[in-house]
């Protein structure tokens, strides 16, 4: 079991190292010369660093993606990062145009390759702090179309016609361009034609201009951002707690209010009972049916046990009178 575990660990390590080796061997999507691509990066930056405010607004609104990224990056570095005046590359560019030579060692640069792009970063020594200028280059399909046309133009048959027309010798041209065959000479001349027309196998897609901050500045900025974030959270929590504390007043706020009377009426005094006049002596109470019924029942009950009992049906009350004692 221990041997199997050791073999598994060894195989995993071998796979990891093989993957890392493959990633290191990644090739760029196009061929390039270090000095030329670094020079192109400096030229791209120099073309947009000195544009006026009017042209800058035009690039941002109507320019290509590369022009927008270049102008926005330069503006952010000046206005937000306060980098001051940028390092002037005009002397380097003028020397290159005069002598046709450029040494990439004259600037600090870094090149990073991937499957679909090449990133070139040049360090600019600005007035207040250093600035990194990174340009992303991708493959230029138009280059290969134009190169194929130039290669066909400088085919062996056309080269023979061209040399004869201009009174040149193929052998002299082969020697001049250090070529072994006429086919190789045609490819060299086609590549020179591309360079003359300033058509390169790559094109700039995006520019990023970022100020370089020290570790101390980064830590201070991170601390400020943390304090601001935590302070904002506590303020919001306190505000929410205050809102929740007001909920206890909501029932009283939304409860229906009692309607008040338009005018306050005085309470009415209880009226004294109206005395009922007693019936006069000798008054006939036969019309009082309830009283007649009660007295009739009493008489019938009283005479029911005697010898002179009267039938209930034959008992008739003619008159009832109140007797005063």
Provide a descriptive summary of the structure in words.
The protein is α+β, with helices and mostly antiparallel strands and 325 residues long. Among the domains are: 19-143 and 201-212, no CATH class; 285-312. The chain contains twelve helices and four strands; from the N terminus they run H-H-H-H-H-E-E-E-H-H-H-H-E-H-H-H. The chain has helices spanning 2-24, 34-49, 53-62, 65-79, 90-99, 141-153, 156-166, 170-176, 182-196, 215-245, 250-254, 289-303; strands at residues 109-113, 118-125, 130-139, 202-211. It has a four-stranded antiparallel sheet with strand order 1-2-3-4. Helix 2 (34-49) crosses helix 4 (65-79). It is rod-shaped, with a radius of gyration of 57 Å.
Characterize this entry briefly.
The protein has 325 residues and is an alpha+beta fold. It is built from 12 helices and 4 strands; from the N terminus they run H-H-H-H-H-E-E-E-H-H-H-H-E-H-H-H.
């Amino acid at each position: 079991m221990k041997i199997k575990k050791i073999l598994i660990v060894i195989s995993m390590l071998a796979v990891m190292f093989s993957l890392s080796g493959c990633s290191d061997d990644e090739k760029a999507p196009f061929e390039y010369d270090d000095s030329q691509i670094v020079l192109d990066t400096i030229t791209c930056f120099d073309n947009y660093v000195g544009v006026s405010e009017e042209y800058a607004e035009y690039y941002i609104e109507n320019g290509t993606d590369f022009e927008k990224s270049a102008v926005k990056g330069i503006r952010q570095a000046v206005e937000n990062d306060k980098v001051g005046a940028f390092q002037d590359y005009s002397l380097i560019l003028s020397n290159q145009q005069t002598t046709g030579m450029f040494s990439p060692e004259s600037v600090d640069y870094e090149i990073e390759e991937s499957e679909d792009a090449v990133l070139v970063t040049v360090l600019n020594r600005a007035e207040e702090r250093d600035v990194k200028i990174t340009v992303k280059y991708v493959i230029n399909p138009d280059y290969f179309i134009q190169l194929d046309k130039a290669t066909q133009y400088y085919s062996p048959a056309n080269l023979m016609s061209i040399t004869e027309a201009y009174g040149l010798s193929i052998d002299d041209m082969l020697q001049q361009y250090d070529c072994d065959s006429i086919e190789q000479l045609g490819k060299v001349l086609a590549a020179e034609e591309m360079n003359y027309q300033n058509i390169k196998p790559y094109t700039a897609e995006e520019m990023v201009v970022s100020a370089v901050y020290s570790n101390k500045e980064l830590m201070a900025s991170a601390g400020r951002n943390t304090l601001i974030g935590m302070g904002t959270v506590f303020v919001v929590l306190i505000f929410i707690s205050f809102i929740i504390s007001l909920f206890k007043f909501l029932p009283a706020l939304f409860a229906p209010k009692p309607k008040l009377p338009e005018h306050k009426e005085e309470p009415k005094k209880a009226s004294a009972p109206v005395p009922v006049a007693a019936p006069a002596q000798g008054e006939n109470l036969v019309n009082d049916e309830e009283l007649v019924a009660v007295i009739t029942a009493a008489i019938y009950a009283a005479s029911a046990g005697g010898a002179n009992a009267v039938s209930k049906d034959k008992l008739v009350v003619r008159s009832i009178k109140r007797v005063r004692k």
